[in-house]
Specification:
Layout: E1 2-6, E2 9-13, H1 19-23, E3 35-37, H2 41-50, H3 57-72, E4 78-80, E5 84-88, E6 91-96, H4 103-114, E7 118-122, E8 127-130, E9 136-139, E10 154-165, E11 170-173, H5 176-184, H6 193-209, E12 212-217, H7 221-231
Parallel strand pairs: 2-3, 6-10, 10-12
Antiparallel strand pairs: 1-2, 4-8, 5-6, 5-7, 8-9, 9-10, 11-12
Helix pairs in contact: 2-3, 5-6
Length: about 230
Amino acid sequence: MVNVRLADIPIRFENRFPELEWMCRDYATDETPLVTLSVTQEEIEEERAKQADIFTDGYLETICLYRKLSLEMLKFDVFLMHASVIEVDGEGYAFLAHSGTGKTTQTRLWLEHFGDRARVINGDKPLIRLDADGSFIAYGTPWCGKEGMGCNASVPLKALFLLERSAVPTCEPADQEYSIDRLFHQLLMPDHPEQMMLLLDIVDRLVETVPCYRLCCDMTDNSVLAAYRAAV
């Protein structure tokens, strides 16, 4: 059993395998959990059938638990976004793209450019929370991609960058229709209608609140400069 604090919500995982305990070691808490989650062996086997590679039961359990958690967290105005979030000078910038388009590359370029002014909050699957004041906060989680880039921290979201490959880096504001379409490709979509309505409402408010940019990027520092100048 593992007790953690994620997106400022205390959670209890009733895990059966040790992998989760190691993953969540930096997120442990003694707080009384508001949510308790577990998965069955049948759910683990269903997850195994979706995977192209061979994984242990323990690893598959961590995947199942995070999916369950992400859907449960919608009732707390929290959702999972497939993105890389970096903090620069206390403000958060999220990179969203299909796998292999350049999220990790852009993250590394920003780290190189800003040095000690920057850190990675989560390199793959952060939790995003709608705060009581209407702002959006990005949180680190133990699920941070194969590179393991992330930390137990949070940052206000200042901008979303929707990545496209280009030989000439440019960054322009994205219209709402384009932003929503790109965003929904990077979200965990619920099957339950009530959860879907919660997610739709949060995403609408996200696009209205946090500026979205269409970042046509290459693999040079010019992409960093184009994006940062547009957002600030």
